[in-house]
Amino acid sequence: MKRVFLIVLDSVGIGEMPDAADYGDEGSNTVRAAATSSYFSMPNMKKLGFFNIDGVDICGREEHPTAAVARMTEVSKGKDTTIGHWEIAGVISPQPLPTYPDGFPGEILDEFSRRTGRGVLCNRPYSGTDVIRDYGEEHMKTGDLIVYTSADSVFQVAAHEEIVPVETLYEYCRIARGILTGEHGVGRVIARPFAGEPGSFRRTANRHDFSLEPPKKTMLDQLSGAGFDVLSVGKIIDIFAERGITEYVRTTDNADGIDKTLAYMKKDFNGLCFTNLVDYDMLYGHRNDVDGYAKALTYFDNRLPELLAGLGEEDVLMITADHGCDPITPSTDHSREYTPFVIYGAPVKAGANFGTRESFADIAATILSYFGLTPACAGEALPVFR
Q: What is this structure's pTM?
């Protein structure tokens, strides 16, 4: 019984890519930024070889690393969650997903209002916490939906749970998903329910993403199609529009994501467990909270020995990221960065360093090769297994 546990540390980039300036991200280095905090400590990741990866110039090198490593290059045109995860799963996106720095066009909102029977507030890029502060009270008085976006390819709909029940909000987002196709095919439609009173609104844990389906066959499709288990922890189920996944659990935060990954380690299955830990991005990177980001990385490092101890003789742990989100640069958006790839387990050639890879898709090819499958997606397998 072979198992791979693939953990995405959402937004943990390791330095600007050569085309970073094209995205307004020159100088970005998320890990280096977090390491400026006194709360940063990752001795367990250091033992694996994390700081031996090309271009990572903090914390010193490990002389005898216990894992194999590589630096991953994003070849897709974008720096968002959807495109990053798709490429990890073997799908390269030659065109960026549409973004709306000036808000959504009138014909989109008119159709959305017609089909939901509700008006629209805001319609521009906004912080998720600020938008409910600024528009929440008007929403409660009128019942109009708060629609906003960001630098990502997203159509976000916020509504108070006492004004719009959560399941109704989800249905409105399904309507938006049906409208937003073709040239307006945004990566994600996101339900953002909130609660509380004016002056003290808070987002609830009932967020739900309605993603665009990957345009090609992914690693998940190929694994599940070949009879392997594909388990999703966190928002993986949403990013892939539920495709290619045989079982899933949602999470509330990084701690819950680690706990649920550990629970799957105790379960018999044959295939992939794919985990996303989102707090780095959602709570700290987008809010330029350097100390919070550092604490979150330190927390993961503190829990890492539990993950390593949970591995069986044929199990492999892989750790990577989907983009950057430097908490020090003036921007609060994602950043165009290289990402880490750390591979650990009894079947792995410990100490191997595969340099800088040409695509995140090499992760998909490597996983498929471990299960004896010829990749039907992009990517080149790393010769990492004994």
A: 0.92
